[in-house]
Design a protein that fits this description.
Layout: E1 19-21, H1 33-36, E2 49-54, H2 60-75, E3 79-84, H3 89-101, E4 106-109, H4 118-126, E5 130-134, E6 146-150, H5 152-170, E7 177-181, H6 191-207, E8 211-213, H7 220-223, H8 230-244, E9 253-255, H9 259-271, E10 278-279, H10 286-293, E11 300-302, H11 305-321, E12 325-327, E13 329-332, E14 337-343, E15 346-348, H12 353-357, H13 363-368
Parallel strand pairs: 2-3, 2-4, 4-5, 5-6, 6-14, 7-8, 7-9, 9-10
Antiparallel strand pairs: 1-12, 11-15, 13-14
Helix pairs in contact: 2-11, 3-4, 5-6, 8-9
Bound molecules: beta-D-glucopyranose.
Residues 58-59, 61, 135-136, 184, 188, 190, 228, 258, 282-283 line the site of beta-D-glucopyranose.
Length: 371
């Protein structure tokens, strides 16, 4: 079992041995027009409306998910409604409410702020709708049936490990290494496990003097990046660089939680005229993958959005067929242990990029630019 907010219990992840949990379809209401059309034993009609509410387009993974959900749900026979909440929490609340009113049987949510949808999720459950948290946990609510994601704590572990390996590979003579830390947006439930996973690797090395966080900013609150916005990360890095690195102090590494913020950090370093530090990332965005192949950004994480969307649609199909969800973990969302299906994230550096991206329709062609 996993506790969402603390790192200690998160280290061991049982990816193998998926087990099924009941709960899918539980709490369904008295039925509506769509239910009436469901075949015997099925959870709901095979052509039901399925709502997908995605957050802002703060990274390429979300943009990819839109088409994948539209195409995949349509091919599976459903009627998809896929929307972004680009204006933030209020827009997402309205979207979810509208999906309930449209008679959706399942609502899949990548939350802007997972703690701000309680009222809408309660209404969804009251209407017999199944709620799936997609990529980001829905927190502080009893009204979520399943969480489908890449293992976020493990993402952080891989990032922390890559930072250390990168420092050894690229800055061998410079130890102890000067680093700075960047975390994601505080309203995204993923940001804490990303950071705690990374710190489970880095904190012991800070404590033993191998790493030196020159600014002294090591708490999540100090290093978080509101809205996952590149401008916010870049502004903070500009301030740190002019405040702590304007006297010849070298910056050797930056823990960045994703590619967008990694590029922001690299831009700040470039404007400050410093040498390129070892910078981590996540999402395998095209621009960062090119940067890695050019020897600039050190690492990224591959979380194949095609797999995450396909797994989510498989779970929707289980609900439609009246079957139990499949899960391989649980994550506590502050109120309950949510059955969770975790996919494994993959670390990518220049060393293994060609191998990891083989078969990816967007990234394999990028690899061929570097043959
Ligand atoms: C996702 C990351 C992404 C970030 C910003 C997180 O919730 O898991 O992959 O980089 O949001 O969009």
């Amino acid at each position: 079992m996993k506790k969402f907010k603390t790192g200690a219990a998160l280290a061991a992840v049982a990816m193998a041995g998926a087990f099924v949990l009941s709960g899918c379809g539980e709490g369904r209401g008295s039925g509506d027009a769509t239910d009436a059309a469901a075949a015997d034993g099925a959870g709901f009609a095979a052509d039901a409306v399925i709502g997908v509410s995605l957050p802002q387009q703060t990274s390429e993974n979300w943009v990819l998910a839109e088409d994948l959900f539209n195409d995949g749900l349509s091919e599976a026979g459903f009627e998809p409604i896929v929307q972004f909440a680009n204006a933030g929490v209020g827009e997402q609340q309205n979207q979810v409410q509208a999906m309930i009113e449209r008679g959706a049987e399942v609502i899949v949510i990548g939350a802007v702020d997972g703690a701000q949808l309680g009222t809408q999720l309660e209404a969804a459950h009251a209407a017999g709708i199944t709620v799936i948290a997609y990529d980001r946990m829905l927190t502080q609510t009893p009204d979520v049936d399943l969480y489908v994601a890449f293992d976020n704590f493990q993402v952080g572990v891989l990032q922390g490990t890559a930072l250390l390996e990168g420092l050894e590979a690229r800055k061998a003579g410079a130890s102890p290494w000067n680093i700075e830390l960047i975390a994601g947006s505080a309203d995204d439930a993923n940001s804490t496990p990303f950071f705690e996973g990374a710190m489970s690797i880095l904190q012991p090395k800070i404590d033993d003097g191998t790493l030196n966080v020159v600014s002294g900013q090591t708490t999540f609150d100090q290093v978080a990046t509101a809205g996952w916005l590149a401008d916010n990360a870049q502004r903070r890095m500009d301030t740190l660089l002019s405040g702590f690195y304007n006297d010849g102090t070298e910056l050797h590494g930056v823990l960045s939680p994703n590619d967008t913020l990694a590029r922001a950090a690299l831009t700040a370093v470039d404007s400050a005229g410093l040498d390129v530090p070892v910078v981590t990332g996540q999402d395998s965005e095209v621009e960062s993958v090119r940067s890695i192949m050019q020897g600039i950004q050190y690492s990224t994480i591959y979380k194949d959005t095609r797999e995450l969307v396909a797994e989510t649609i498989r779970q929707v199909q289980r609900a439609q067929a009246g079957d139990d969800f499949e899960s391989n973990d649980t994550v506590n969302n502050g109120v309950q242990d949510v059955p969770t299906f975790f996919l494994p994230p993959v670390i990518v550096t220049q060393e293994n990029a060609v191998e990891v991206f083989a078969g990816d329709p967007i990234l394999e062609p990028v690899m061929s630019e570097f043959e």
